[in-house]
Amino acid sequence: MGLRERKKAKTMAAVQMHALRLFRELGYNATTVEQIAEAAEISPSTFFRYFPTKEDVLLRDNYDPVLVAAFEAQPSDLSPLQAVRRAFVSAIADMSADELAMVRERDQLIMSVPELRAAALNNLTQTMQLIAELVAKRVGRKPDDAAVRTFAGAVIGVNISVMLYYAEHPDADFAGLLDEALSKLEAGLPL
């Protein structure tokens, strides 16, 4: 990552950190973009260059490139689900304690504020498409193949269940939960 990209990522993270603090102190609905911008020492117009909406300050992150790189690094002899599982778990394992705390706080807010939950569906749909593209390339199919989309949808469903559980159980191990949930999916979802 070049200097410009690192600076942009650092600013984005700082804005998100201040936003989370303000949401915690004032509540999501009572916090304005102007307050977030002031706390982050940027202008509201700069805020909107990074985040088109207030919801996006919680929904946007820099994890997609990390997930793509982790998936593409998986050995070709793994099944698509094994590769996704290892990619997710390795990407989470590389997160610092502060990053994981931020993920937990974001998940808690997203799951507790109805408009954020609704906005998260669009984000999750985009992630589902990303997974479909990665898996399609790996198995030699098209991303819009029904089986590939179903696979990606199942992985996103697991992600949603883990997000909900993690938001409700803040002491849980996120990587462990995700690994266990994807393991159950791999085993055919035995109950």
From TrEMBL:
<keyword id="KW-0238">DNA-binding</keyword>
<dbReference type="InterPro" id="IPR001647">
    <property type="entry name" value="HTH_TetR"/>
</dbReference>
<feature type="DNA-binding region" description="H-T-H motif">
    <location>
        <begin position="32"/>
        <end position="51"/>
    </location>
</feature>
<keyword id="KW-0812">Transmembrane</keyword>
<dbReference type="InterPro" id="IPR009057">
    <property type="entry name" value="Homeodomain-like_sf"/>
</dbReference>
<dbReference type="InterPro" id="IPR050109">
    <property type="entry name" value="HTH-type_TetR-like_transc_reg"/>
</dbReference>
<keyword id="KW-0804">Transcription</keyword>
<dbReference type="Pfam" id="PF00440">
    <property type="entry name" value="TetR_N"/>
</dbReference>
<keyword id="KW-0805">Transcription regulation</keyword>
<dbReference type="Pfam" id="PF17754">
    <property type="entry name" value="TetR_C_14"/>
</dbReference>
<protein>
    <submittedName>
        <fullName>TetR family transcriptional regulator</fullName>
    </submittedName>
</protein>
<keyword id="KW-1133">Transmembrane helix</keyword>
<feature type="transmembrane region" description="Helical">
    <location>
        <begin position="146"/>
        <end position="167"/>
    </location>
</feature>
<keyword id="KW-0472">Membrane</keyword>
<dbReference type="InterPro" id="IPR041347">
    <property type="entry name" value="MftR_C"/>
</dbReference>
<feature type="domain" description="HTH tetR-type">
    <location>
        <begin position="9"/>
        <end position="69"/>
    </location>
</feature>
